[in-house]
Amino acid sequence: MSNIPETGRTPRVRIRLVVIQVLVFSLLLTLGGRLWYLQIRNGKEYTDEAKNNHVQQVVQPAVRGSILDARGVPLADNETRLVVSASRTELMKMKDKGKAVLTRLAGVLEMKPEDVINKIRLCDSETPKPCWNGSPYQPIPVTDEATTQQALTIREASEDFPGITAEPTAVRRYPAPGKARTAQVLGYLSPVTDQEIEKAKDTDSPFLRSDQVGRSGIERTYDKELRGKAGVTRYEVDNLGRVMGQTKSDPGIAGSTLVTSIDARVQAVAEYELAQAMKAVRQETDKITGRKYEADAGAVVVMETKTGRVVAMASQPDYDPNAWVGGISASDYAALTSKKSNYPLLNRAIQGQAPAGSIFKVVSASAAVRAGHGFNDRYNCSSSYSLGGRSFANFESKGHGPITLGEALKFSCNTVFYALGHQEWQRDGGLKPKKDAHDWFYRTARDFGLGAETRIDLPNEVTGRIPDRQWKQSFWEANKDVWCKQGKKGGSYVEQIAYESCLEGNQLKAYDSINFAIGQGDVLVTPIQMATAYAAISNGGTLYNPTVGKAVISPDGKRVREIKPTPHGKLPVGPETIRDLDKGLRSVVEPGGTAAWRFGGWPQDKIPMRAKTGTAQVYGKQTTSWLATYTDDFTIVMTISQGGTGSGASGPAVRNIYDAMYGLDDAGNQDLKRALLPKPQKTLPKINPDGTIDAPAVKPYDPEAQKVDPEAGGATPPLAGPPPVWRD
Considering only CA atoms, which of 531, 631, 582 is closest in space to residue 405? Predict the structure, then answer.
């Protein structure tokens, strides 16, 4: 008789079965818990990731909106080019990863095979450029300069070029109408970065990796409006990257059109005349240094006085913005950013800083009135002003005796303003300032908008500098350690200055204030600041935000958003003082004034001209030329670094710009048929029913066209009469 149970299981077997059952149930419980965690607890997260891993998008970039001048002339638009692109998805399916196809393509495009292959490789931290920084599912541009024959070869032999397309595509273009580059105002484009994509992803204007964005100028300021919205087609792909089907598409929306206040014709004149003025002054010898003037940089601003709209803005040296189209070469980039080329990317109209020289005297005259000095009182214009054993001379050391502030502007008398600046410094307590010190000269400069941005619609504007007591203290605290280390009592000029600055650089001294009164010393201004201030004198006292943008027009032309002139302040003096300033500035171009020799024959009775010349001294450099002018409708300010005197270097160019705008010859005769812009452009370009804008033609500027035909009216008299006794 057996002791085995009827089931045939021994106790040992039963124990083993129990253990196995426990293990099975444990595994099932673990698996269930994991499935709950993946499908329920974190289900949405993994579902989203799965979708992203299996949906790829192909982007069709939107056509960027055009930038037009005030009459509708394109300053920046798009041209159709034949772009050859490669589909990385198709090429990667091939055994050799598309190497043979790309080699054949290089032969057709007359490029090196390695260059073509490099263009479609994906960028990463270890891959040098050129490489593709976009989606691997996006057609990758190989060239945007294909010829018609090359495109036909590729398309006709498509079996030899699988994954390769040759299609007409819109590419940015800067046509320079009338040779007006408008480079620094327009700016340029470059590909969006990963950081920008991440930063903008939750905004109302997110970036796509294929986007080109504005990097400077109005391309940057109005990038959102100009960029439009790219079209996106989404594809389902498997884990090997093979396309399984299309999901949905978002149609693209073209960018809006930006109409500016720039007049391409006036812009061409401004660029030409600035460049010619710099070229001409380089032929002259600086009497102070004994060298030829370097005239290394310059800028000119033409502005509507009653609105602040910018009609023209030129900066030298300049560049061709087309250099950025399609990606800038390393050599071109080095040239644009090198010290040798003097940084042509800088817009010196808003980024160039220098002492203002005598064009600052409208500020000082206003400060004197605010301090209680009468505009028409008499002040001694001596040949020099003495302070602490030092003598501060008039320009060319000429005196004029007792004169009014208006006459001080006319003759640009330094000593009148030296004395006023010194007196106000003393009244405020001198080296021991009073608690209620008025600091009228410094306060008035800030109230004229100096030392702050003008709020122009261009990026990277600088503020300049008003060196008041607060600035002196903060500047000293930031630099005293260096000064104390470099300074040496009784050493060289630089060492002695550093020594004195170490000990008392935080003090606003008497010579600081007298230098400030004539726009010298540590004061720095920009051309756009001075243009805004002089325009305010012309229009009765309103400081406007300078603007380049005038209107944004939707792609279909049905929606127009005008950019209205916006004031940001008022001049700190009353109407009577503004009229006195205006009268004094008018006398500057009349007989005896420092700019009279540059405005001989000007029709002062028909088109009243006002001006102020300036010659600013900069330590270690030749003098900077300034000329600020205005009529009832326009303000023009020009500056040339290391260019000499205001009227001498800038005078002819400014006169020629006005002549072209008003249609004047050298004798002051006006021909409105030749006038480029006798009055500000008030209306917008006409928009056609289909949203397009017809652009008038722009001829290159011809300075000889301004001359009078001797057979028609006799020989043209000289531009200027006899030179004055002295000039600023």
Answer: 582
Helix, strand or coil for residue 255? coil
Quote the tokens at residue 62.
């939107």
Torsion of CA 164, 165, 169, 174, to 10 degrees: 40
Range in 244-253, 477-486, 633-642, 687-696 with the lowest mean pLDDT: 244-253
For residues 592 and 400, the answer to whether their CB atoms sit within 8 Å is no
Tokens, residue 392 = 């501060």
Smallest Cα–Cα separation from 313: which of 260, 380, 262, 354? 262
Give the CA count within 13 Å in the CB-facing half-sphere of 247: 15
Q: Is the pLDDT of residue 710 over 50?
A: no
What does the pLDDT look like over 483-515, one tens digit per residue? 999 999 889 988 998 999 999 999 999 999 999
Q: Which helix (H) or strand (E) holds 170?
A: strand 164-173
**Per-residue DSSP letter, 110:** T
- What pLDDT is recorded for position 53? 55
For residue 679, which phi and psi values (nearest 5 degrees)? -135, 150
The enclosing H or E element of 612 equals strand 610-616
Dihedral of alpha carbons 537, 539, 545, 546, sign: negative
Residue-level pLDDT at 559:
94
Comparing 55-59, 168-172, 394-398, the range with the smallest average pLDDT is: 55-59
**Strand pairing partners for 385?**
392
DSSP calls for 107-121: HHHT--HHHHHHHTS
Cβ atoms of residues 370 and 440 within 8 Å:
yes
Q: How far apart are CA 626 and CA 720, in angstroms?
A: 19
Residues 77 and 322: beta-carbon distance below 8 Å: no
Q: Which amino acid is at 622?
A: Q
**Residue partners of 569: CB distance under 8 A and separation at least 6:** 447, 449, 542, 543
Contact predicate 209/136, CB 8 Å = no
For residue 130, is the peptide bond before it cis, meaning its omega torsion is within 30 degrees of 0?
yes
Q: Are strands 567-570 and 542-544 parallel, antiparallel or unpaired?
A: antiparallel
Q: What is the rounded distance in angstroms from the CA atom of residue 73 to the CA atom of residue 553? A: 14
Mean pLDDT of 168-173: 86
Say how many C-beta atoms besides its own lie within 10 A of residue 511's C-beta: 17
Instruction: Supply 11's token pair.
Output: 């106790």
Distance CA 548, CA 182 (A): 12
Per-residue pLDDT tens digits for 265-303: 999 999 999 999 999 999 999 998 999 999 999 999 999
Task: List, for residues 543-600, the tens digit of each pLDDT value.
Answer: 999 999 999 999 999 999 999 999 999 999 999 999 999 999 999 999 999 999 999 9
**Strands, E, within 514-609: which ranges?**
542-544, 549-553, 560-562, 567-570
- How many Cβ atoms are within 10 Å of 236's Cβ, its own excluded? 14
How many Å apart are CA 460 and CA 272, to the nearest integer?
25
Classify each residue of 512-534 as buried b or exposed e, where b means 16 or more C-beta atoms within 10 Å of its C-beta: bbbbbbbbbbebbbbbbbbbbbb
Q: What are phi and psi of 573, to 5 degrees?
A: -130, 160
Cα–Cα distance for residue pair 721/567, rounded to 1 Å: 40
The model's confidence at residue 231, banded by pLDDT at 50, 70 and 90, is: confident
Cα gap 583→408, rounded to integer Å: 12
Nearest to 312, CA basis, from 576, 600, 694, 658:
658
Question: Mean pLDDT for the chain?
Answer: 88
Nearest Cα to 613, choosing from 626, 630, 600, 598?
626
Structure tokens given for 280: 């001409």
The first and second tokens of residue 65, run together, are 């909106």
124-144 b/e with 16+ CB inside 10 Å = b? eeeeeeeebbbbebbbbbbbe
How are beta strands 297-304 and 257-260 bridged, if at all?
unpaired
